[in-house]
From TrEMBL:
Gene3D superfamilies: MetI-like. This is ABC transporter permease. It is found in: Cell membrane. Belongs to the binding-protein-dependent transport system permease family. It is a multi-pass membrane protein. It comes from Kibdelosporangium philippinense.
């Protein structure tokens, strides 16, 4: 009987290890990366500022459109320069006043975040969707389909996108706006989103095509084919789950790239224009007053630099967390 008795585990005995999902392991690795956590907090801060811009405007008591310097005497000089030092920074106007028009710089900066993020996120959603569809199709089908899609991607990559933006955007706007009239904000934003989307899906498509080319020869895909699974089921159930990591990495790299591209186009005059708050337009205006009001250039420049740097660091941390062998 004694041999049949099973000893109960003691209170101090170690418990069996608890299994963790790949997502939990990635989250654990990400939390250990201090630079990534800090970068994530900075990115989250920018997103919250952009989403809460109307609330901030209500609490602050000002908006980005009112020309306070022109409406109230004593704020701007005869040449349009803020009368107070450091660009008019004081307890009422936290980041000073815009030269010539006298708008509040802080609110322009807050709403500029909103503009840049909105356009960038919409573009990234479009290019990611198109890139996934085209890349997976080319990689899985192969043959003539892969060859044709590859040549289309090569053609788009060969076109100097910046010059195309400068040349095509005014032409596209002229098709919908009568001569002498200013294009509405929604039309400019739509044209900007479409133009950016046309050229920026190629990177994700080429990356995912290469991933699918290697995955389609793996044993689990062959087993699915042998079992009679349809092509749609193989793509949805077998391939796409293994493409989550590269897709997330591409997204974290595309968002800051689209923010800087949108700002550059606005700086060059083919993006968002007056009176829409935009970082690129602010930098363009600030460059004209760099000697007299340098703060108007510093604030959007530093904000753009911090956002792009934080998002790039976040992308590196996400990549290392999802694929710990990638940095070796």
């Amino acid at each position: 009987m004694a041999d049949l008795l099973v000893a109960e585990p003691s209170a101090g005995a170690s418990k069996p290890p608890i299994g963790r999902s790949p997502g939990q392991l990635a989250w654990r690795r990400f939390r250990r990366d201090k630079a990534g956590v800090i970068a994530g907090c900075v990115v989250l801060f920018f997103f919250l500022i952009g989403l809460g811009a109307p609330v901030i405007s209500w609490l602050y008591g000002k908006d980005p459109y009112t020309k306070y310097g022109l409406d109230r005497p004593g704020l701007l000089s005869d040449t349009g320069i803020p009368m107070k030092p450091n660009g008019g920074i004081d307890s009422e106007f936290w980041f000073g006043l815009e030269p010539k028009l006298g708008r509040d710089v802080f609110m322009q900066l807050v709403y500029g975040i909103r503009t840049s993020l909105l356009i960038a996120i919409v573009v990234v959603l479009i290019v990611t969707t198109v890139g996934v569809l085209v890349g997976v199709t080319a990689g899985y089908l192969g043959g003539k389909t892969d060859y044709f899609i590859g040549r289309v991607i090569d053609t788009l990559l060969a076109i100097p996108s910046t010059l195309f933006f400068l040349a095509f955007t005014p032409v596209a706007l002229a098709l919908f706006v009568a001569p002498g009239k200013e294009a509405p904000v929604w039309l400019r934003a739509t044209a900007l989103i479409l133009v950016l989307s046309v050229f920026n899906w190629t990177r994700s498509a080429r990356l995912l095509r290469g991933q699918v080319l290697s995955l389609r020869e793996r044993e689990f895909v062959e087993a699915a084919r042998v079992s009679g699974a349809s092509s749609r089921r193989i793509v949805v159930k077998e391939l796409l789950p293994n493409l989550v990591t590269p897709i997330l990495v591409v997204v974290t790299l595309d968002v800051p790239a689209m923010v800087t591209t949108e700002a550059a186009l606005s700086y060059l005059g083919v993006g968002m224009v007056e009176p829409t708050p935009d970082w690129g337009r602010m930098i363009h205006t600030g460059s004209e007053y760099i000697q007299t009001v340098p703060t108007y250039l510093v604030f959007p420049g530093v904000a753009l630099l911090v956002f792009v740097l934080a998002f790039n660091l976040l992308g590196d941390s996400v990549r290392d967390a999802l694929d710990p062998t990638s940095h070796r």
